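--- STAGE predict ---
source: upstream dedup step, 1 unique chain passed
mode: sequence only
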Amino acid sequence: MKDEQLLRYSRQIMLPQMDISGQQKLVDATVLIVGMGGLGCPVAMYLAAAGVGHLVIADDDIVELTNLQRQIAHSDSDLGQAKVDSVRKTLQNLNPDVKITTLNQRLTGVGLDQAVGNVDVVVDACDNFTTRFAINSSCLKSKKPLVSGAAIRMEGQVAVFDSNKLDSPCYQCLYGENSDDDESASCAENGVMAPLVGIIGSVQAMETIKVITGIGNSLVGRLLLLDASSMQWREMKLPRDKNCTACS
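--- STAGE serialize ---
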């Protein structure tokens, strides 16, 4: 790392668990973030600020006025632009040392497998079950850790799935193959409180950093649930499903 980087990341480097070696792991890492909406924006911003060396951001949508209530990497001047281009500008202003690769497309099939195979960690910040199941499948194929988050109304959840660990469940262990009612689970249909996605996205960013550096205990095998209306967190153990058609 350059002297400027050592200074930029000094508050992280001074943590005993992190040190220079942990920061170097972040600088050397590549992370794929799927979805540049309410969750993907804070995830990308915190990972860029923390010094993840290469961020691959994927989304096929454009910035709309209704996004601005919660998707904090976009602004009025970005309306009508591709979300990945809007976020790239924000991240480059945050930390010009971070390499940003934009994928202005909905990742599916071979393209998704290739994107997942070329990174160290995948962050699922999308908003539909179809894509989540596809991401889970690709992560299992490539044995890449998956940091999953979801938020709707005033409720959110975060989990980490890592097939490199024998006892780790996968996303499909949590939600069966028939969990495909995307319309009823959308923010457009149900609404979402703005700070909620920031909270969940920040936790996803923290878990991503922990997976990359190996510090602390990740959420592998655990599901963290937030009820923002009462600001209560619950944790549930999430065992591997021996009958799961995806990972068993």
